[in-house]
Each structure stands twice: as C-alpha cells, then as structure tokens.
Amino acid sequence: MRVVFTTWAWPSHLYALVPLARACRAAGHEVIFASEPGLTRDVLRADLPAAVVGTDVDTAGMVHEYLLPLPGADGPAPRREGKGPRVLRMLMAHAESMAADLVRLIGEWRADLVVYDQVTLAGPIAAAVTGVPAVRQLYGVDLLQRARAVLPDAMAPLADRLGAGPVDPYGTVTVDPVPATMQLPGEHRVLPVRYLPYNGPENQPWRPPERRRRPRVCVSWGHTIAKVDPERFIADRLAAALAGTGVEVVLAVSAAQRDLLAARKDLPDDVRVVVDVPIKDVLRDCDAFVGHGGAGGILTALAAGVPMLLVPQLPDHAGHTGRAAATGAATVLSLADLAPATVREEVSRLLDDPEPRRAAGELAEGMRGQATPAEVAGALAGLQPSLARH
Fold first, then answer.
1. Mean pLDDT, consecutive 10-residue segments, the chain of 390 residues?
2. First to last CA, the chain
3. Structure pTM?
4. Which of 8, 109, 124, 328 could join 134 in a cystine, given CB atoms 3.0 to 4.6 angstroms apart?
5. Which domain of life does this protein belong to (predicted)?
6. Where are the extended beta strands (E) located within the chain?
C-alpha cells in the first residue's frame, strides 16, 4: 500500500500524524509526507520521506488575528469574512496552496490512500479528484463538527475547479486519539487509536532528580504562541508565580523560547528550565501540568494521567480546554484571571484534591486500551481495493 500523509506547514499538526505514518512504514507500506515548503525540515527530522506541495502561507500572521483579546485591550474588532468560523479563511488559504500539487503527487506516485489532519482540507479534495479513500486523522477535539453546515460550501469552488465535485470534509473514516468522553460527537465512521505522543526530535534526555521531596509541576507553552506573538509567551511568568510555594517547578521550553527567557532575565533561580526535552518525558514524572491549551499538550498530559491548569489564548484552545475541563481532569483560567495568587491557588487545588488526578488517571487508562497505531495501520489497508495494481 502507498500512503500519502499530508498537513499544512505547522509542526504540531505534523507531530499528531507521525506515529501512524511510522506505523504504516513499519508494516511495510510505502509512505510519503506531503506539505508546504516550511515543514520539510521537520518532516525529515521525524525520519519520514518528504514531498513539497504548494507554497508557504503566512499562518502565523493569520493566527495572530484570532488571538483571544487581552484583558482591557482596545482596538478594532477581529476581521470576519463570510459565513462560519473565521478560521475557514486560513484553512482555505492552505487548501488553495496545496491541492493542485497534491493531486499531481497522488496520481504520479500512484497512491492508494490519503491521510490528512483534520484542518488540511486539500487532503479530501485531492483524494476525491484522484478517486482514492481519504482518511482523516484528528489531533484533538473535532471542532470542525461545529462548521458542518458551512464547510462543503467553503470547499466547493476549489473542488469544482479541480474536478472533484462534492467533497466530504470528514473523509471515509476518522482516526481519533481523543477519549470518547471528551470528544464532540459526529456522524462519521471512527477508528479509535491509542495516543502516542510525539513532541519533535528527541535531542536532549530528561534527567529527573534522584529523589522526590516535593510535588513537581511542569509549565510549558507549546510552540505556537511564541511564534505568533512573543509577548503572549507567559510560561515564565506562570512558573515564577509558583516558585517558592513548596512545589518543584520545571519550565519546559524550546531553544527559541530559551532566548526569550534570556532577554527577560526575571526568572527565579529555583525554577528548573529544560530545553528541547520532549514534554511527554517530563510529564511522566510530574504531578500537575500548566499549559496554554493546545490539543497536543492536553492529550500528552492525559496520556500520562496528569491533571492540568490551562490558559487558552486562541478560539480552538478554548474549545479543547472546555472539553478537557468537562471531564474533571483540568481547570481553565481566562487571561483575565491570571493573577499570581489565583495561579498558585488553582495549582494547589490540583495537587490537593484527588478528583482531578482520578479523572486524569481514568482517561489515561482508557487511552491505553485503544488500538495501537500499528493495529490501525492494518485496518487502513482494508479500505482500498487497488493493491492488485502494485
């Protein structure tokens, strides 16, 4: 079987697809990962073969338009174009960039299957043009269910131009790593999959202290927000708020974020900073997690059975964090509620109240009981009828 995996150029979307792509390769299938030029280095560092489709889109600039307003901020209302969620403008910009090249790649490479992440709409369009099954892989809560009424119309002009006709944005089947109690319901066929965190290349080992004398809290802010607006990178401020409260604070950052810390020069000495260590390794030995509400961070914390304090800064973060809070495994603070005393109070509650840890542990147990990526790769092989031609 030949499988084209595709997402637009945003590392966290790639990370969600890596375990299944690797599982397909391990099963003996041919895999190629197609994305815009800006993701090529990350694909290769994930040890996957890369193909370039389309051109880069100013994703960071578009995401900046969707940032939730800061408390007391003045300025014009966010721009809204057309019907439906504002994010459709960004999704269709990527689809317009990628779809034609993706159609050519699928045809020339004689692919049997297209696997696309939930917001890469070029995937189902190109699959429809070429007549191969389209498999949707979720990286978090299926927030595009809320756009079901407007997605087909948004996709129709591009689909018609490429000769696809009507396209189902939800694909032939959806591979879903999100616990069912946290997921939004939909009408599509679902293949649950065990969430195996991939947080980027593993360049640095995690070395926890030999002894645990205090509760350990990890603070991390993902990759997105610092790229979109460095002033919105507030992980250091949250870590500083927790310093001196009787907990061990671990601040997990990327190399680029370490430069931000160096420029600010206000981090307490008792906050331990780790750089480019996969968050999955850090969380394995933590009692609580403080994060920005990205889907990858939430699922990684849940896989480790760790309760969370989440501070959403984008509309999709609000969707992911709201569903996490509904399970009892997370507390959500708005940007308006980030007084240091409030942060300390909420983290203390996560550590002292057994219910968030119990809820997170139950979700982790359920996630471990799902089919492995290897088993899902086997199920996907049964979706396509054309293996005989190879």
1. 97 96 96 98 96 96 88 51 69 97 97 97 98 96 92 95 93 96 91 94 75 88 89 92 93 89 80 92 94 96 98 93 97 93 96 97 97 96 55
2. 8
3. 0.93
4. 124
5. Bacteria
6. 2-6, 30-35, 50-52, 113-117, 134-137, 173-176, 190-192, 216-220, 248-253, 271-275, 288-291, 308-310, 330-332
**What are 180's strand-pairing partners?**
none
Q: Shortest CA distance to 11 belongs to which of 300, 235, 294?
A: 294
pLDDT reported for residue 388? 33
Rg, the chain, Cα only: 21
Residues 14 and 20 sit within 8 Å (Cβ to Cβ): no
Distant-in-sequence, close-in-space partners of 222: CB < 8 Å, separation ≥ 6: 12, 291, 292, 294, 296, 297
Q: Exposure of 25 by Cβ count < 10 A (0-12 exposed, 13-18 middle, 19+ buried)?
A: middle
pLDDT at 77: 44
Q: What confidence score (pLDDT) does residue 68 get?
A: 87
* DSSP notation for 292-314: ---HHHHHHHHHTT--EEE---S
Is the distance from CB of 86 to CB of 79 less than 8 angstroms? Answer: yes
Q: Reduced to 3 states, what is the DSSP secondary structure of residue 315?
A: helix
Give 330's strand partners: 308
Backbone angles phi, psi at 71, to 5 degrees: -55, 130
Pairwise CA distance, residues 5 & 114, whole Å: 6
Distance CA 125, CA 127 (A): 5
**How many residues does this entry show for the chain?**
390
- Give the pair of three-digit tokens for residue 312: 């959403």
Contact between 252 and 281 under an 8 Å Cβ cutoff? The reply is: no
